[in-house]
């Protein structure tokens, strides 16, 4: 299959099915679409300011507030006013949130293992190399089309593209 358009469609279809599988598994944990990512962020960055979390996850503060309200009602996180500045809210994970996070990590690792079942280490290395080249091309294309981007916007965009900040 050398047709790049067909390959891109296959890649998108694969991602759709993988996300559907993960969403179905996570629905058993009563988590909404964006909640696992937020929960994992709080798990690894406990006590962060709500504004920092919004920036780190690249979501609007208002959207984050709604997500946090839902997760707070579910007993997964707590919000507390900052001791130095009462206007600032800090987000902390609860014991239930910690347990759910651990189960989510285990579920994700198990799913990824299943996704790549039967794929050799050599094939994975080639796949990783191809994905890295494609990522470089996409970032280059973004740079070319957004020439008026400031250094801060560039840094923020790159951070948002990376899941390493979780």
TrEMBL record:
Keywords: DNA-binding, Transcription, Transcription regulation
Membrane-spanning intervals of the chain: none
Entry keyword annotation includes Transcription: yes
Domain HTH marR-type, first and last residues per copy: 1-136
Statement: the UniProt record of this protein carries the keyword Transferase: no
InterPro entries to which the protein is assigned, alphabetical: HTH_MarR-typ, WH-like_DNA-bd_sf, WH_DNA-bd_sf
Gene Ontology MF terms in the entry: DNA binding; DNA-binding transcription factor activity
Start and end residues of each stretch annotated as Disordered: 145-166
Protein's name in the database: MarR family transcriptional regulator
Source species of the chain: Fusicatenibacter faecihominis
């Amino acid at each position: 299959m050398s047709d790049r358009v067909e390959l891109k469609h296959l890649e998108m279809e694969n991602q759709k099915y993988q996300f559907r599988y993960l969403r179905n598994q996570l629905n058993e944990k009563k988590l909404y679409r964006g909640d696992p990512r937020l929960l994992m962020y709080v798990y690894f960055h406990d006590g962060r300011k709500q504004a920092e979390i919004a920036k780190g996850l690249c979501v609007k503060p208002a959207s984050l507030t709604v997500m946090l309200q839902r997760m707070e009602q579910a007993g997964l996180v707590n919000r507390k006013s900052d001791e130095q500045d009462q206007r600032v809210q800090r987000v902390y994970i609860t014991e239930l949130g910690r347990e759910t996070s651990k189960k989510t990590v285990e579920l994700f690792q198990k799913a990824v293992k299943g996704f790549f079942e039967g794929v050799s280490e050599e094939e994975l290395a080639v796949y990783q190399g191809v994905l890295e080249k494609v990522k470089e091309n996409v970032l280059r294309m973004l740079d070319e089309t957004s020439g008026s981007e400031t250094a801060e916007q560039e840094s923020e965009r790159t951070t948002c593209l990376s899941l390493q900040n979780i």
